[in-house]
Design a protein that fits this description.
It is built from two helices and two strands. It is of the alpha+beta class. Helix 1 packs antiparallel against helix 2.
Length: 132
Amino acid sequence: MGAGMGVTNVYDGAHYQRGHGIGSFLGGIFRAALPILSKGAKAIGEETMHTGFNLMRDVAQNKPIRDSVLRRLDEAGDNLKRKAVNSIGELMKGSGYKKRRIVNRGSPVLSQTFTILSTGFMNVTLSEYRVL
């Protein structure tokens, strides 16, 4: 009690374990796939909304519901396939290795020219100096 011993029995892992395990590997894959999956989910949601509106329009025009549903689902499937093919084409486009550009973050070098006019007893000297 108050002797500064602290907690003595703390488990700090197996001594032979290295790395971060399979969770790190799977997490990296999921992290890479998440933007693609969210983009796909957004496309499915938008297409579902458009299909619902078109279906309601067909019902308002007294078209047979069964035929309308089948036609609109086929249209939605075709649209989603087209969007998937376009997005895969965009992903596979790749432009190869991009050389990293080095950016100079230092202060810019300002050059300044000034003229000194010195007059002597019978002569005039005009000198130009450039300061970097």
